[in-house]
Amino acid sequence: MIQRLTIELTTAELLSVAVFLGAVFGALAMVGLRRLSRAESVQAEPPDTPAIATDGGIETHDLRADGGSAIEMVVAYVRPDKLGDVKQGLAEAGAPSLTVTNVSGRGSQPAKKGQWRGEEYTVDLHQKVKIECVVADVPTEDVVEAISEAAHTGEPGDGKVFVMPVEDALQIRTGKRGTEAV
Fold this sequence. Notes:
The protein has a domain of 95 residues: Alpha-Beta Plaits (2-Layer Sandwich), CATH 3.30.70.120. The termini are far apart. It is α+β, with helices and mostly antiparallel strands and 182 residues long. The strands form two sheets. The protein has a four-stranded antiparallel sheet, covered by helices on one side. A two-stranded antiparallel ribbon has the order 3-4. The protein has four helices and six strands; from the N terminus they run H-H-E-H-E-E-E-E-H-E. Helix content is 27%, strand content 23%. The radius of gyration is 28 Å and the shape is elongated. InterPro entries: N-reg_PII, N-reg_PII-like_a/b, N-reg_PII/ATP_PRibTrfase_C, N-reg_PII_CS. This is Nitrogen regulatory protein P-II. GO terms for molecular function: ATP binding; enzyme regulator activity. Keywords: Cytoplasm, Membrane, Phosphoprotein, Transmembrane, Transmembrane helix.
């Protein structure tokens, strides 16, 4: 014989159960979202990566003989799989500070054709990585050469490098301007 168990709860009892469960799950969420200490948040470098300073801790100085500021921005568009090589090349050239953005675009690299579910499609916007590097204390040509050598495969779509003058720079935290801000 099967017996049925029915539980009748009042509104107050239901409310207290809901508050209890909310407190339990809230506590579990707080434990999962706790902040890491600085020592815990630091990630070790992979063992095969050589120890090259990538914090930009290089003393700055003007390179121009006329005493003016010589700040330039190097912008490169390269294959995403060459980003690690470019970062390494820039660090070795003494210009480890950079900004990286994932972009897509079209240039001299030919479009790729494919087929999906019987339909043919063309991919004419290729995925690239945009690397921006503002230099003042390292010769711009060294930075351009480092990017060029690291990104080169010899195939269409290796990318392009552009050099633009920067009129001024300001470091927000310290208020330094010009080459000292870079």
